Prior knowledge:
Layout: E1 2-4, E2 12-13, E3 16-18, E4 42-44, E5 53-55, E6 57-64, E7 67-75, E8 97-106, E9 110-112, E10 121-131, E11 142-155, E12 160-162, E13 168-176, E14 187-197, E15 210-218, E16 227-232, E17 236-237, E18 239-241, E19 244-247, E20 250-254, E21 286-287
Parallel strand pairs: 9-18
Antiparallel strand pairs: 1-2, 1-5, 3-4, 6-7, 8-10, 10-14, 11-12, 11-13, 11-15, 15-16, 15-17, 19-20, 20-21
Amino acid sequence: MNKTTGGTDTFEEVTAGVSFPIVTVLPPSSSWTGSKTFSATLQPTARLLPGDVFRVRVTVERQSAGGWTLLGTFTQSAGGTVWHFASTNSTDVSPNVNVRLTTAALNSQHIIRSVAGQGFFRCVIGGKARRYDAFLAASPGSANVTIPLRWTLRDLSGNLDVPLVATAGVAAATLADFAEATPRTPVETLFTANVDVVPQNWADIDPLRAYELRVEAGHPGDAVFTLDSTRNTMPANWLALTGTLRFANFVTTFDQLTGDPLATLGGTTDPAAHAAGTLNIPTGHGLLPGHAGHTF
């Protein structure tokens, strides 16, 4: 069994056992034409992560006096995800919840740091949590589950991580033990959480460079962080404005913009590395400090 967490061609081997050897013995003088069906039960030796994509690869060999001869190999052209609940103990302490992140997107690629609620870049993540616990109980209970999160901000232009004020948090979900049916099945719920990104040094956010936020969801209930799933934002330029606008020595402020200022940015040969662009300030949202009755 192979897995991939991204591209369609970069697969990593995952150990998977087979519950019994599949061997067909034919009489010495017999022949076989047409097709033949084989079956097996895959038994992974470790829990398969719900955020990875898997596909099965089959190798067919023939045994003779000289040993084994390869007849052919077949690999699924399209992979799929797996919700693998590895616990066989109905009363263990683990909540037996698996988590898969499905979305990660910035609210806005530009912020005005002086405006309330804009002192950070907010990424909204979404995901699914499934639970299959206490499966031998008379009826399902319910529990509030804490989903550990951690994140890193990557400067793709410089190929380095940006130091952040905070790099971890949690999401929350409420799930029953299982869904009552015949047979009993896992229960699923959707969840969302906000990841607020604040660099230790705002100068590290350069609007002429591309950034990508990587969010990881951990396995609920584990004493140390154990990865369940990852999701990245789309590579993009980020712009953090102070809200101060200077005309030589004359200082003004602004608290709102129209349109996307990043769309107006271009390259620069300025030795001070300033980015040239346009700020579209709506009428009345340009302010003169100390002169409350005057705006522009």
